[in-house]
Amino acid sequence: MAVVSYEIKSGVGIIRLNNPPVNALSQVLREGIQNAVVAAQGDESQVLLIVCEGRTFVAGADITEFGKPAKAPSLPSILDSIENSVKPVIAAIHGTALGGGFEIALAAHYRCALASAKVGLPEVKLGIIPGAGGTQRTPRIIGVDAALDMITSGNPVAAAKAHSMGLVDHIINGDLLEGAMSYAERLIADNAPCKRVSDMTIDPATATDALFDSWRKKMAKKSRGQLAPQKIIDAVQIAVTSSVPEGMVKERELFTECVQSTQSSAMRHIFFAERAAAKVNDLAKDTVDRTISKVGILGGGTMGGGIAMNFANVGIPVVMIEINDDALARGLDIVRKNYSITVSKGKLSEEQMKDCLSLISGSTNYDDLGDVDLVIEAVFEDLDVKKEVFAKLDKACKQGAILATNTSYQDVDKIAAATTRPDDVIGMHFFSPANVMKLLEVVRGEKTAGDVISTTMKLAKKINKIPVLSGVCYGFIGNRMLRCSVRENQLCMMEGASPEQVDAVMQGWGMAMGPLAVGDLAGLDVSYKARQALTEEQKGDPKSYCIVDAMVEMGRLGQKSGAGYYRYDPDTRARSSDPEVMAVIERLSAEHAIERREISDDEILNRITCAWINEGAYILQEGIAQRSSDIDVVYVNGYGFPIYRGGPMHYADTIGVKKVYDMICEFQRQHGDVWKPSALLEQLAAENKTFSQWSDEQT
Ligand code: 3H9
């Protein structure tokens, strides 16, 4: 079928777009729309209807074309043709009309949408601003404040709400084409005019400088370090005093500036990386997924409860198993409280909460796992305990059930070996809070069956997680790299930095929080306890953990005990510096005969980021991660890495792999073999290649 086809029915000129999978506005589609609209001006049709084949209306510009030389016709010129059409143009929306897709709809004279459709301008999530009138037309319809909310958040708006805001004129229940045709015929009968959004104006009283300033401040805080949100505000402000054609010229300049920025390139990288991460390279083509209709969760702690919610939220029944009635009641209560918080925030209705809760049952008997298709173990992080649990699961669960462990460090192969069916065993490493965090590390054991991997990856998407496949190693992808950066933040403090300096550097660079503040939040005892299970060799250089151990041994466990690297106000949790901590650090430096020195912010940044990158390179060379962008997805979605820097491996590609290699070699000279560069890093530096190029070559 042609990318764009045209026919006239009952006076309606139907322009059908068909560019699977999401009708992105690639050059052929743009050209096809332009030609169809222009040609239709002189034919016998009375109105034009733009409608899409497939699963969605146009989902926006073709993101793969960004950064390449622009090819005519440009989207703004097509929108000119649409808006200046002599006969009314109607956009008929199903699925999602996003970005350039919604901008087409805004240039049309009427918009109708299926009740299930959504519209939105998600460009900000790609580090850009709408570049085809979105910032100029939207505020004319819904006002400046609502437009800023919609465009700076990038969140889609459901059809009913869009209708109430005036963004959509007519809602269709039932068949899209039938509904759109009868709407078009009604417009013909009414002799409806070409209603142009460009003819609308913005009331200046609703668009004061103070309003724009408050949005600038709000976005500087909410999207710290990001360029696009500020440019969106600039563009919307321009709309107040300019005509749409004038405003679009300026909007285009701002759009171009954003598209060319390293921030947008990083965010586009993450967009494609998240989609690539779901793909498993070596699965047999004929792999048939297992059906997951009921799930068992072993352990009703914070983690188990959070995991259970993910399944209930998408209508999959869950049975939670605990060791006794009290523990079970506590577990179910955690879930109830979490849902109540969501209801109180207005993000869930009472009715929805009841539906979800009705899907979660509890038991203290393993026999109640007999009919589940997947069980996820979320018990204490101890290999022996987990092995015992898996031996029991092996007996209790039916043949064909997937047996998953939520371990964050333990050896999935050893856990699998405790069963008679290691091919059914897999790791599902959720991140805390498990009902909120998007990342899911799916850990394939040596014997995990292909259909178990495939089922788990798809199930992750179903429960709205972003899955990344990892092989077995201590800490998998994320925590293994984290250990290396923690080593460096500890050593920087031993050599002269303060917790405040380390946190300020990393937060200032864009991390959601400084690493030491994160430690306080997670609880310093967590890594302390994990370390107790390690041999001296596995623990590494005592200088790299003596500070955190001292904190724990002083009872400074972090926020939960009111003090860690910082002190916390018991009522407000406000953080303050504590001279006692500096005294401990200085004492430990002296005990280890380290002469403290001034450490530059750059050194801290480079040591922490290079520690991630070098370990990431080892992870790639060992085949633990499938591709370098998977590592980026893990860091952006699980570790507070700034999306606009694209993840550690993309960051290395951006600043230059050779430069990173040279820094690491220098660190090795200064600090020893913990900094031994990975062979892969060395190879890429020699060949002047990026991680991304290398990953592409592997598939
Ligand atoms: C824009 O419009 C700028 C304008 O203002 C100005 C221009 C001048 N381009 O997500 P899925 C691919 S900026 C190219 O798995 P779903 C995607 O990579 C754009 N490719 O499906 C994947 O490929 P593969 C503003 C795209 O059903 C496949 O399609 N628009 C694009 O879960 C399926 O995608 C956006 O930011 C694209 N625009 O979700 C919307 N979109 O199979 C971005 C998708 O090879 N898209 N692909 O892995 C989305 O949010 C989701 O794809 C959507 C469907 C909700 C539409």
TrEMBL record:
It catalyses: a (3S)-3-hydroxyacyl-CoA + NAD(+) = a 3-oxoacyl-CoA + NADH + H(+). It is found in: Peroxisome. InterPro entries: 3-OHacyl-CoA_DH_NAD-bd, 3HC_DH_C, 6-PGluconate_DH-like_C_sf, ClpP/crotonase-like_dom_sf, Enoyl-CoA_hyd/isom_CS, Enoyl-CoA_hydra/iso, NAD(P)-bd_dom_sf. Residues 475-568, 604-689 form the 3-hydroxyacyl-CoA dehydrogenase C-terminal domain. CDD domains: crotonase-like (cd06558). Pathway: Lipid metabolism; fatty acid beta-oxidation. GO terms for molecular function: (3S)-3-hydroxyacyl-CoA dehydrogenase (NAD+) activity; enoyl-CoA hydratase activity; isomerase activity; NAD+ binding. Residues 294-469 form the 3-hydroxyacyl-CoA dehydrogenase NAD binding domain. Monomer. Belongs to the enoyl-CoA hydratase/isomerase family. This is Fatty oxidation complex, alpha subunit. It comes from marine gamma proteobacterium HTCC2143.
